[in-house]
Design goal:
The protein is α/β, with parallel strands linked by helices. Helices cover 52% and strands 10% of the residues. Helix 1 packs across helix 2. Bound molecules: iron/sulfur cluster (SF4).
Amino acid sequence: MAYVSPLETRIARKTTKAIVDFNLIEDGDRIMVGLSGGKDSWALMQTLDQLRRRAPITFSLVAVTVDSGYKDFRHDRIASTCKERGWELHIEHTSIGDVIDDVLDSNATPCSLCARLRRGVLYRLADQMGATKIALGHHMDDFIETLLLSLFFGGALRAMPARLVSDNGEHVVIRPLAYVSEDDARLYAKACGLPIIGCCCPACGDLSLQRQRVKRLIFDLDREHPGVKQSMLKALSNVKTRHLLDRRLNPSGELRDSVALRHEDEDASPDLIQISS
Ligand code: SF4
């Protein structure tokens, strides 16, 4: 079965690379796909379904939609779309929206609490449904935005893992679109005729000021210097821990001196090696 377009081919290749690089899917897996109805989750579902049909291993998919309880949420359109395509779907109706209203001040950004509550629901459902992994639709832009947000406002050098084992070791969360751009995910969901469903909460589409600023910064930089995003993505897999200031990563005292001697040549540029030899 051939891919239908260069876009589909590109997304399939990038997703396969992430799956291989981080061992995201194994033979016999039952993958629970978090399907919010947004473009990214549709792109993820469609891509994994394509890969499943041609993969040399066997794995199954079940989509799960967590309904936060907002009255205009079109879970019926998610259900009809999945039915048309033969995708197994479970919709979990919850009162997450009410909980957020009760707990947060009206001017607070609800998304991180919402994400935590949804994650709890997904973990519970994964147990009930015998899912071995939970797939989320975060893409390359999410990874690099999170990196800059953390760098600028969080005082930590971190992004998000492509594969995460929960603290209690019982759940594995995977992000197969780690190498796929947001633009490609959007185009793919549209090209496949998948309906983009808003979550219908009051904060829907309302990014925090910090995230908006970071998105704009990356957009402007990438326009001036095409390739900036790819470079940031590459940096995430090319960490030079000895060139950072985290003492937990770098041995101190005598041990550091002996390790430094061994690694000195590794870090020197070709020019420096030539000069010193
Ligand atoms: S926009 Fe609303 S539904 Fe979406 S993550 Fe934020 S709080 Fe949750």
